[in-house]
Amino acid sequence: MKLKDGVIFTQVADETIVVTVGEAAQAYKGMIRLNATGAFIARRMLRETTREELVDALLQEYAVDEETAGNAVDAITEKFASVGLIEK
Amino acid sequence: MTNKYQFAGICVEIHHIYPYFANQAQKYLSEKAAEFSVTVTQADIDREKAAGEVATADDGYVESLVIYRMLCEKLLERNVLLFHSAAISMEGKAYLFTAPSGTGKSTHIRLWRKRFGKAVGIINGDKPLISVSPQEIRAWGTPWDGKEHWSANTSAPIAAICQLGRGEENEIHPLSPEDALPILFAQTYRPATEEGMRKTVQLLAEIARRVPVWQLKCNMSTQAAEVSCAAMRGESI
Fold this sequence. Notes:
The complex is a heterodimer. Chain A is of the alpha+beta class. Chain A contains four helices and three strands; from the N terminus they run ββαβααα. Chain A has helices spanning 22-27, 36-44, 51-61, 66-82, and strands spanning 7-12, 15-20, 32-34. A three-stranded antiparallel sheet of chain A has the order 1-2-3. In chain A, a hairpin with a 2-residue loop joins strand 1 (7-12) and strand 2 (15-20). In chain A, helix 2 packs across helix 4 and helix 3 (51-61) packs across helix 4 (66-82). Chain B has two domains: 2-78, no CATH class; 81-232, Phosphoenolpyruvate Carboxykinase, domain 3 (Alpha-Beta Complex). In chain B, 35% of the residues lie in helices and 27% in strands. In chain B, strands 4, 5, 6, 7, 8, 9, 10, 11 and 12 form a nine-stranded mixed sheet that branches. Chain B has a three-stranded mixed sheet with strand order 1-2-3, with helices on one face.
């Protein structure tokens, strides 16, 4: 899976703000606020990746168990899918 | 046609085709040195019409929209953005009301005028510009002024911003900068470029940090104006 072209990440204080231009803006014109973990996952979706790779990356970066990492990845991918920002 | 105009304190040279814009923007003519220029072609107008929303509109009117879009892309580099709202003034300060179209911005402004009379001045009823500088965050009148044509070539530092929603009773509460940001973003001009979009988010975050943002649920009584005015002016209700 991969995010559509035009998904932009920008930092505001402690949060990562996600907004869209171009193709991504056709699907979604709102703003998504992410914490550090959410941003860590979402930024990896700028390139083609899989759930497994995302969970592995999270396990390497943070001291969490596999279930927690899996839930975090699912929450973020579902969030982006629900607003149409993941390429079909 | 070519003329120089001043918007948000910035002088711009505009090359365009139809007289509609020249009439609309007469009060904004300027003799200063232009900081940049924009040029509209018939192809730009046709592209705007093909995009759908204004397909059947008059070319002159569409040209005016295209000019504002081009200006907004350039003004962003100078820390100025278009914030869709009704901007009024009182005692030298600006108060901005924002809401989705049809949610009662005009009604609320009429309530302020009914309750506070001549103390209320109009800056712009629909599409004012906001400039962000280290010293102040200021609202500016523009000739793009919505269906009521409420506008004046004037400006004032912004004291507060308020999002309007309908309610049975009148209630107002403050928003944190984090919660205010998406609300401001939803009513701000969306630049086409990635760089412009980043700049927009950063400017809005700064506005949300420096200007109090309120959320009002209101009915159509003059009490609604009293409630928003007291909160936005920092008075106890």
